[in-house]
Amino acid sequence: MQGKTVEIxxxxxxxxSGKGSVSAGVAKALGFxxxxxxxxxxLAALSCQREQVDPSDEKTVEAVALKLAPVFKDxxxxxxxxxxTEAIREESVGVMASKxxxxxxxxxxxxxxxxxxxxxxxxxxxxxxxxxxxxPEAHLKxxxxxxxxxxxxxxxxxxxxxxxxxxxxxxxxxxxxRDKRDTERAxxxxxxxxxxxxxxSSQLTLQQTIDKVLEWYHESRA
Length: 222
Ligand code: DC
Known about the structure:
There is one protein chain. The protein is globular and about 50 Å long. It is an alpha/beta fold. Helices cover 51% and strands 16% of the residues. The chain is built from 10 helices and 8 strands. 2'-deoxycytidine-5'-monophosphate binds next to helix 3 and helix 5.
């Protein structure tokens, strides 16, 4: 079985919990591949947006997703040779992604694409349902969380670095709203996978969070 030869660590958690940075740090330390599953939802959303697909038209959204052939190379993401790394991060694409992510058909269509990232020696997969649905055989499952306030503070700092002014109170209420939508949706709701270890990073730096995951990983292999 694939799970025996490819080491898999899943890191799921709410928006702005630092999943992406933690996954990248853990993967670098172990020499593993990384799957940012949110980027696949965003790629599907960008294609739907460009083809003017109605997000509630599940069949057409599914067809768009099944045609996706993204190329991940040197930290960049390409669709039909076009570099879409920045385009998929746009707010409108994120909104479209969260809408289409409620579709069971779309989630099924992206399933195989996600599974193909499991290549030796290992994979760190981040998202919402990596440990529960996509890689249930993972060796280590993490549910990374942090208080809405500390996640909002991190997002505030990131935006500031990009020269974007934001309001911390608005960020906190936006995060709480998204948490509610993510945890209450009918299909693959956000919740710790069975056997997942919950890591609250509210009081930890990025490096401390990465070190904790690495410690748990080594413990799980001992
Ligand atoms: O992590 P992100 O914000 O880039 O993800 C974009 C959207 O995709 C997000 O609104 C939720 C959805 N998503 C999901 O439903 N399941 C995943 N495994 C990853 C992302």
